[in-house]
């Protein structure tokens, strides 16, 4: 009988930051509340992509083990969940590679996957083994150039200059809500533009 998945627990950003710092100082028990908070979400992410509960549990365990070992290198430049999410996606890719299969990025993964491409592509060699990384980067670049000017500028500041939402808002003298709206619409437009590529179909808008 499978062990029940722990329900998400309440954990404020300040509490989470403190737990990260304590774990980085060598307090192993401080990592447990982080696992309790995110385990169900990460498990569900994996399960919906491998469609096998036992395999998903094994990968989920691997994800948090890797996260715990890598936490000393976590600089807090992204949300902790986004960082763990990237580890999970990489573990899924590794699983499919071992099965001699390719992992196709789901459309609902696209915003965080774009974040994964723009911020961490140099650190994940397994990605280049399953996706045509440079081709995908070039297509994303062309798709971004086709965004409306406001969306393109916000997207550039967020991903190329790696600015936080609040800092982009200050730079452009706009509200954080407006910046989030620009990013949301940019992600939607990019989903539509990149859908053919992710489904191995002809990209009608791409100039070759």
Q: Number of domains in the coordinates?
A: 2
CATH class of the largest domain, please? Mainly Alpha
Percentage beta strand: under 5%
List the helices and strands in order.
Answer: HHHHHHHHHH
Mean pLDDT rating: 77
Largest sheet: none
Rounded to an integer in angstroms, the radius of gyration calculated over CA atoms is 18 Å
Q: What would CATH call the homologous superfamily of the largest domain? A: Winged helix-like DNA-binding domain superfamily/Winged helix DNA-binding domain
Broad structural category: mainly alpha
The CATH topology of the largest domain, please?
Arc Repressor Mutant, subunit A
Q: Please tell me the CATH architecture of the largest domain by its name.
A: Orthogonal Bundle
Helical content band: 55-70%
Low-confidence stretches: 1-8, 119-132
The coarse silhouette is flat
N-to-C CA distance: 54 Å
Give the number of helices.
10
Beta strands, count: 0
Description of the structure:
- The longest helix has 23 residues, at 176-198.
- Mean pLDDT is 77; it is low at 1-8 and 119-132.
- This protein folds into 2 domains: 13-103, RNA polymerase sigma factor, region 2, helix turn helix motif (Rna Polymerase Sigma Factor, Chain: A, Orthogonal Bundle); 107-208, Winged helix-like DNA-binding domain superfamily/Winged helix DNA-binding domain (Arc Repressor Mutant, subunit A, Orthogonal Bundle).
- It has helices at 13-24, 32-50, 53-70, 80-98, 110-120, 125-130, 133-145, 149-160, 165-172, 176-198.
- It has 10 helices and no strands.
- The chain has 208 residues and is mainly α.
